[in-house]
Amino acid sequence: MLVQTTSEWHRQLLRGVADYAREHGPWDFHIEPRGLLETMQLPKGWRGDGTILRLVDRAQERALRRRGLPAVNVSWQGEHSRAIPRVSSDESACARLAASHFVEKGFRSFAYVGPVGQPRYADVLGAEFAIATHTAGFECVTFSGKSREHRQPLHQQRQRLVDWLRDLRHPTALLVWNGEVGREVIAACSANGLPVPDDLAVLCAEHDSVMNSLAPVPMSNIDQSPLRVGREAAALLDRLMSGRRAPA
């Protein structure tokens, strides 16, 4: 299991894998504590039958293909490969759902804060949210973290974030990439006199109960069903390990 273990989303995913294994196994797992930005490689000398992983770069893909192991990618982040099937929640659908919810609530100003400090991530969620709001007749502004000087973690850019939040046309509907980003945004608002949700209505694209409980104001969340993602990833890996192809 080459996935991070620090986020609630991934822990729920692991529970889904474990549930499937209890029903269809037994399976013997190799898993180590891992964070979001850690490089994940198969252990030297490991003799397994397959892997569920967060595919982050081509080197990782090449290593898997050299081993000839069946693999299933469960990540939004990093490089995706046609050779390694992916099971994950639908980023585009999450973005459309968020935009539709905000429009129905009567918002006319939209903004997005994505995975700041993660330059390798192809931010489909943010791009699709901008498209969905534009289709509805509105514009979306994004907090940029692409330039070299703006790639630090979000908490190290607090003043720049606060200035950006103040410049938005309030009330603003704000979609955030994950619970850590959402907590930091709400904390910045709370510390600088920006009312949430009156001026900024924050919606998190994933459910993270720990980050939610640590935020000064509770966040609304989109449930991406990581438990189901884990079960379906395990079912697909089981299929691949039995010699069958992934569905087209």
Automatic annotation (TrEMBL):
Nucleus recorded as keyword: no
Keywords attached to this entry: DNA-binding, Transcription, Transcription regulation
UniProt xrefs under InterPro entries: LacI/GalR-like_sensor (IPR046335), Peripla_BP_I (IPR028082)
Residue span, Transcriptional regulator LacI/GalR-like sensor domain: 100-247
Any GO MF annotation of the entry: transcription cis-regulatory region binding
Protein's recorded name: Transcriptional regulator LacI/GalR-like sensor domain-containing protein
